[in-house]
Design a protein that fits this description.
The chain has 228 residues and is α+β, with helices and mostly antiparallel strands. It has 3 domains: 3-50, Structural Genomics Hypothetical 15.5 Kd Protein In mrcA-pckA Intergenic Region, Chain A; 58-119 and 212-217, Alpha-Beta Plaits (2-Layer Sandwich), CATH 3.30.70.580; 124-200, Alpha-Beta Plaits (2-Layer Sandwich), CATH 3.30.70.1560. Helix content is 21%, strand content 27%. It has helices at 3-8, 14-22, 110-117, 137-145, 180-187, 219-225, and strands at residues 26-28, 31-32, 44-46, 49-50, 58-63, 91-93, 101-107, 125-131, 148-150, 153-154, 159-162, 168-173, 192-200, 203-204, 214-216. β9 (148-150) and β10 (153-154) form a beta hairpin. The longest helix has 9 residues, at 14-22. The protein starts with a helix and ends with a helix. The mean pLDDT is 95. The structure holds uracil. Residues 96-97, 100, 179-182, 195 line the site of uracil (URA).
Length: 228
């Protein structure tokens, strides 16, 4: 990659990167390089600080309740993202409601966002659901077979199993309609009182990732998402 492109990963525009390079602020393997067109792979510093040269980053937030997925709001999940990523154009992959917790991917890779949220990709997303009242076997059968949640809105068949605690269920859906899980429960005359996404594709929310914490995913983690 060209050096000036690499230096933009530090949050500079291309022309700011070029002038930083020309003025001797950039080193490659500890040697100052003043040619913006130099080809580089890694070990680049700006003012002595190592630049993270990853083209894209993939973050996993254990979303707390009370945060929204929209940007530019005081209660935005983006406020939980470390400052060092603030120059990246980040978006969430599949919104969660303000009161929903759990697995939320945040990235600057637009193709990846598409692969996660596109209904055509059928990527399973599993939620831990606590309902106001118990679900009967017949409710579970209705949910599993693809329930109608509004005129012309029928959910695809999904998985629904009882979890360990009373009134708790694991629901796995392969689409992401607006308030889908809440509306599915409403459609069987019930109500969601707690909702947490715990898995996307083959990647589960790590047990050690506390509410509000962010994990930068490795290439292996990203691959695991697509190998359920
Ligand atoms: N379904 C919902 O109803 N809410 C969410 O946040 C996610 C899925």
């Amino acid at each position: 990659m060209r050096l000036d492109k690499y230096v933009t990963y530090a949050g500079l525009t291309r022309s700011e990167a070029s002038s930083a390079i020309r003025s001797g602020r950039v080193a490659v393997n500890d040697t100052i390089i003043k040619n913006p067109a130099e080809k580089v792979e890694s070990n680049v510093t700006l003012d002595g600080n190592v630049i993270d040269g990853s083209e894209y980053i993939y973050l996993l937030l254990n979303k707390p309740s009370g945060y929204v997925c929209e940007n530019n709001r005081p209660d935005s999940v983006f406020g939980l993202v470390p400052e060092k990523y603030s120059h990246r154009k980040l978006s969430v992959c599949g919104r969660l409601d303000k009161d929903t917790e759990g697995f939320l991917l945040i990235t600057d890779d637009g193709d990846f966002v598409h692969r996660i949220i596109s209904p055509a990709k059928h990527l399973p997303k599993t939620y831990l659901v606590r309902s106001a009242n118990p679900l009967s076997d017949s409710d579970i059968t209705k949910l599993k077979s693809g329930i109608v949640i509004a005129d012309n809105e029928r959910c695809k068949p999904c998985e629904c199993v009882r979890a360990d605690n009373p009134n708790e269920y694991l629901l796995t859906i392969t689409e992401g309609m607006y308030h889908q899980i809440k509306r599915m429960l409403n459609a069987v005359g019930n109500e969601v009182v707690y909702l947490k996404r715990i898995k996307t594709g083959g990647l589960s929310l790590p047990e050690g990732l506390k509410t509000g914490e962010i994990l930068r995913l490795s290439d292996g983690d990203v691959l695991r998402i697509f190998t359920p």
